[in-house]
Specification:
Layout (H helix, E strand, L loop, with lengths): L1 H14 L1 H66 L4 H11 L2 H24 L4 H23 L5 H8 L4 H95 L1 E7 L4 E4 L1 H7 L10 H4 L5 H17 L2 E9 L5 E13 L2 E10 L10
Antiparallel strand pairs: 1-2, 1-5, 3-4, 4-5
Helix pairs in contact: 1-2, 2-4, 2-7, 3-4, 4-5, 5-7
């Protein structure tokens, strides 16, 4: 099938080259059109999908970030409820001063700290050792708080010895978990920003490809429209040239018929190139075959008498100098030796920066001029 197709194209290329060229141009235009259309549809679809993915991804990233921020907020509330501004502060004051309101505040803040720690412990993954240290500290402080509630207060030194808790490992664990949550928030923020920049860049690229494909399609259509207009103009110009050629041929035919019936012919001398042009009637008057062409000046001199040649030269010189015309009669010797009497006229003419002498010869032998002997 491929070989057959190639043979067909070869045949068309030999017999109808313009048809084959138009076929290739049409095929190329269709390929460009469909490629740009597919690119536009693909880029537009990908752009829409990427935009949806961006919305979902950013929504998920925002959810993770909000979750991490919530963890840090809960952890901060735990530290506030338990730390030196909360439970420990009031518990130490009770141990040192023995005022019941400090013990009451210590009990309330401890319950808040336990509640906040339960949520944070579930939300933060891993850190088993650190969690164990914090659980142990809470358990020890719970025992110390119960001891303080049940033991009669004799002196601050005695009660302090009974409720003293080593909380240094737990506070180190708290600092470790707090650092982890802060780093997690920073990492999620940077990841979200990076993803948003990358997705935005892809969106811009796809948008550019979409616009580019639409522009290519528009350009292809514009070029096709322009070519159609140019083709229409060329067709009209070609038709006009054909009409002019037909009209020129008809005018030449009419001129030949008029020259044949009237016994005259026309001539044109290009003064720039000294090139002479004869019509068919001039060839007929001289008895010279048209196929022989216009003779050069030295060869054409044999058709005219010496006096005629001198008179011709003078008339031509005056017409060129004065940009005027002339007319006179003279005898002419044909190729077959016959003598004819010819009336000639000429006129100076200028056209588009070029200069000419145009004129005609007419056979007046029938008027029986005595000089025709």
């Amino acid at each position: 099938m491929f070989c057959v197709s190639m043979n067909i194209f070869r045949f068309k290329d030999k017999e109808h080259p313009f048809m084959t060229q138009r076929l290739y141009e049409t095929l190329a235009k269709r390929i460009v059109f469909w490629l740009s259309l597919i690119l536009a549809i693909g880029a537009g679809s990908t752009l829409a999908l990427l935009f949806l993915f961006r919305s979902e991804f950013l929504a998920e990233a925002d959810s993770d970030l909000e979750r991490a921020i919530e963890q840090r907020r809960n952890f901060a509330e735990f530290r506030t409820a338990f730390g030196y501004g909360g439970f420990i502060h009031h518990f130490k004051n009770y141990v040192l001063r023995g005022q019941p309101e400090y013990l009451e505040q210590a009990n309330r803040h401890f319950r808040e700290a336990q509640f906040e720690w339960t949520g944070v412990k579930q939300d933060v993954p891993g850190f088993f050792n650190e969690k164990a240290d914090i659980d142990a500290m809470l358990t020890n402080y719970a025992d110390a708080l119960q001891t303080a509630n049940q033991t009669p207060r004799e002196s601050a030194e005695t009660l302090d010895d009974l409720v003293r808790v080593n909380d240094a490992p737990a506070f180190m664990a708290i600092a470790t978990i707090d650092t982890y949550i802060a780093n997690q928030i920073l990492a999620l923020t940077e990841a979200r920003h990076t993803a948003e920049v990358q997705i935005g860049l892809w969106l811009l690229i796809l948008l550019f490809l979409t616009i580019l494909s639409v522009f290519v399609n528009y350009l292809n259509r514009s070029i096709r429209t322009e070519r159609q207009e140019v083709a229409a103009q060329e067709l009209a110009q070609s038709q006009k040239l054909r009409d002019l050629a037909v009209r020129h041929d008809l005018l030449e035919l009419q001129q030949h018929q008029a020259e044949e019936l009237g016994g005259f012919g026309t001539w044109l001398l290009n003064l720039d190139t000294e090139e002479m042009q004869w019509s068919n009637g001039i060839f007929a008057l001289h008895g010279r075959p048209i196929t022989a062409g216009v003779p050069p000046i030295h060869e054409a001199a044999r058709y005219y008498d010496p006096d005629t040649r001198n008179q011709m030269a003078q008339l031509v010189q005056v017409a060129v100098t004065n940009k005027s015309g002339f007319s006179f009669r003279f005898p002419l010797t044909r190729e077959d030796g016959q003598r004819r009497l010819v009336a000639s006229s000429g006129q100076y003419a200028a056209h588009q920066g070029h200069y000419y002498l145009v004129g005609l010869y007419r056979d007046v032998t029938a008027e029986k001029d005595p000089r025709a002997a």
